[in-house]
Amino acid sequence: MSSIAENLERVRKRIAHAAAKAGRTIDEIELVAITKTHPAEKVREAIEAGQTLFGESRVQEARAKIPELPSNARWHFVGHLQKNKIRHALPLFELFHSIDSLALAQEMNRIAADEGMHPRVLLEVNVAGEGSKFGFSPDKLRKQMEELLALQRLSILGLMTIPPLADEAEASRKYFVQLRELRERLQTEFHVDLPQLSMGMTQDFPIAVEEGATLVRVGTAIFGERTRPKRE
Length: 232
Ligand SMILES: *Cc1c(COP(=O)(O)O)cnc(C)c1O
Prior knowledge:
Elements: H1 4-21, E1 30-34, H2 40-48, E2 53-56, H3 59-65, E3 74-77, H4 86-89, E4 95-99, H5 102-115, E5 120-124, H6 138-149, E6 155-160, H7 173-190, E7 196-198, H8 205-210, E8 215-218, H9 220-223
Parallel strand pairs: 1-2, 1-8, 2-3, 3-4, 4-5, 5-6, 6-7
The protein binds pyridoxal-5'-phosphate.
């Protein structure tokens, strides 16, 4: 079995390779190491190997884990955020990847005002239109964009997507392209800057990098298999 340090090295090399292939520089891409279900010791190993940016998908788990770890670790939230967890989540995370409805954005805006905070967020898009999945459909997002942009407390920095599960990494490419094109369209239509594209997981992150990802969310390739189901 290879160590976390070796895994990280391998993932970073694959990011660099994909970036070079697409004529991008690696400074444009940040690796978010997804630590859900893994204990603090494993995260500490990753920190020792030079990784500083991590992601969690459950507020409860993050509230237990984050205080055990050095304060130079930075945390992103990548899961479905329940409204009743917003207040606890706000101080823990520097970016929320997964604002998946107008109602959630409005509630976060209200609580952030209450707490005197200005959270940085991405909007999660269900590009494939899967019924079982959280996120804005591209159409709904265009319809609700004005209302989202009017939320004074939220800094909307970009888009995030989770493509449908597939056997082949290549199957994700078209969804990554769609997310990038949607970003371009929103930028033009609403005169906003949406620099961040969060896309790519263990299965398909090199493809995401080729298609313009600025944040890749990789868990299994770094920390090994989880015992809980992959996508929750
Ligand atoms: C768990 C998770 C990941 C990481 O998945 P891997 O396949 O283990 O790399 C990425 N993004 C989200 C939203 C997740 O919940």
